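Late entry, written up from scratch paper. The run itself happened at the end of the previous shift, but nothing got recorded in the book at the time, so transcribing now.
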Amino acid sequence: PHRLAAMAAGNGADELELNVKVVQGTGLAACDKNGLSDPYVRLQVGKLKGRTAIKKKTLDPVWDEEFPFGRVASPVEIQLECWDWDKMSSDDFMGRASCVLDGSDFKMGPRDITLQLLGRGKDENVSGSIVLRVTLEAKKSEAEAAAAEANGLEGLGAEAARDASSEPGGGAGGARRG
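Output as recorded:
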């Protein structure tokens, strides 16, 4: 519901700054003969990609790795795949997940999101979940920043900008940098 409301209000074109931390995995599938796995996560946001380090011999890896994806358009889709690293053969698919987010989901700051891993429709050994800590902050468009600077309001708090524009001789172009 939040996503649809934000899309209708902002036409889905808002610029946001995205940072994704891959925190941990829990209850992942055992892919190796020793009953464990050597998992890593591949992330994708649009054309941007990231990959965590391999955590050896665990079903509950802790990565705590950050991926600053920079500016993205809202809504943003985060896709991930979890893989088991194998030295002697091709890596094993352990599951995938995705989520779609927009700025209205983050009014209170960063969010921890737990994504249940899913298969690709085949008989696969898939279980567990991945926890992401996502920060998604609205950024001023270049036009908004230029307009604020032209009005002399850049760097002023909302209250100071309002006071400056309500003073005699204030208003557009009337505020002075102090």
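The CA atoms of residues 142 and 148 lie 10 Å apart.
(Scratch paper discarded after transcription.)
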